[in-house]
Design goal:
alpha+beta
């Protein structure tokens, strides 16, 4: 009974163990379960040692102290003995980007990007960036350049993740191909430009000469605007917007295979006709009825503003569907339009009913439920367990 507080911990430990040993590891990339198993083993060993020492401390405290010192000393010795490149790795990763010999060249890119109008940046991936601290160094663009980038720490948690890595494969000489079990397209810069426009990319940053030549040869779509001391070059897409009118679309159901179908559409050649995935039969009927009408296929979005949890724009054409290039989630709401609807690749479509349209992100039932349970848990620990003994 006195060890019941271990139950919650053991539950997490056993659950992660089941997931790690039973899931198809080819489809679980960037595995998150193994660290919990390793931590669990260490935690239980430490807990057991503490339990033993607590039993003999009062009777033979000197022996307990010697035993504790021996265990700690042996641990330090064993860790040092089996350490290979860890010290270098820790130093390289945590001493800071500014201490790297190539920092001034990288900082030149950051400075030149920071003075440009705000816009999303797609950059060529290359392992050579490790000289700046890590091959993923350009994920820090929001920090050092105050600009948006498509790839960050949690890119895999986004619905747009697979589509970003397709864009990267088409516009990088050596892409990461990060998601295991996923079929990537070959390098195809012209297709990459189409996908950049569809994704709302404003700036493209190549590094290798091959990609710079590709960008220069597509001057009808890209214009060079910045050269840097570090070998990076900055191009701006001539025609790219975060909100675009939709001239036509097909309607499908939002079943368990919708993402697979969206990926196939994205890889195909019918990008001018996106797929809207209806969440239920009622929504599908509404969209089918809308398609049967002679709706306005022109229009332009103006005064586009995007924040952390909102999108605003003005439509010069009522009843024209617009694709909003922000990842769909069920708790997005809209004012001044119908929707939002899930549209391929993973964005939102709205149909304005007035000039001013505003989308905003809200909490759903699960979010509020989690917050309430968290509050109840904290309250329980603060008030009901106040006088509880931990012996």
């Amino acid at each position: 009974k006195r060890e019941m507080r271990l139950v919650s911990f053991l539950s997490i430990f056993l659950l992660c163990g089941l997931l790690y040993f039973n899931l198809d590891n080819s489809s679980v990339w960037n595995n998150r379960f193994l660290p919990y198993l390793n931590f669990g083993i260490l935690f239980m060993a430490a807990y057991f040692l503490g339990f033993v020492l607590s039993k003999i401390w009062g009777k033979a405290w000197f022996i307990s102290l010697i035993l504790l010192v021996v265990i700690i000393s042996a641990s330090f010795y064993q860790v040092k003995k089996n350490t290979s490149y860890s010290s270098f790795w820790f130093k390289w990763n945590f001493e800071g980007y500014q201490t790297k010999p190539e920092w001034s060249k990288l900082n030149d890119l950051f400075k030149k990007l920071s003075v440009l109008p705000k816009g999303r940046i797609l950059w060529e991936y290359n392992a050579a960036y490790d000289k700046y601290g890590t091959p993923r160094v350009l994920e820090t663009l929001p920090v050092f350049a105050k600009q948006s980038t498509y790839e960050g720490l949690l890119i895999e948690s986004s619905l747009f993740g697979p589509f970003h890595f397709i864009n990267q494969a088409e516009t990088s000489e050596t892409p990461t191909s990060a998601v295991a079990g996923f079929t990537y397209p070959p390098f195809d810069f012209k297709k990459g430009i189409e996908h950049m426009k569809l994704s709302g990319v404003k700036y493209y940053v190549p590094y290798t000469e091959k990609l710079k030549l590709e960008a220069d040869s597509n001057s009808d779509s890209l214009v060079k605007i910045r050269e840097t001391r570090g070998g990076f070059r900055v191009y701006e897409l001539k025609e790219s917007s975060l909100v675009d009118p939709v001239s036509g679309f097909s309607v499908s159901t939002q079943d368990k295979d919708w993402l697979k179908r969206s990926i196939e559409w994205y890889k195909g050649n019918d990008l001018d006709r996106p797929i809207v995935f209806a969440k239920d039969n009622q929504e599908k009927e509404e969209l089918d009825k809308f398609l049967s009408l002679n709706f306005n296929k022109g229009g332009k979005a103006k005064n586009i503003k995007i924040g952390k949890d909102f999108v605003e724009f003005k439509s010069d054409s009522i009843n024209t569907p617009y694709i909003v290039k922000t990842t769909y989630f069920s708790t997005w709401k809209v004012e001044g339009a119908k929707g939002p609807y899930l549209i391929s690749p993973s964005y939102m479509m709205v149909i304005p009913t007035q000039e001013n349209v505003r989308l905003y992100f809200t909490y759903g039932v699960i979010d509020w439920g989690g917050l309430i349970l968290t509050g109840l848990g904290i309250g329980y620990l603060l008030f009901f367990r106040k006088g509880a003994s931990f012996d």
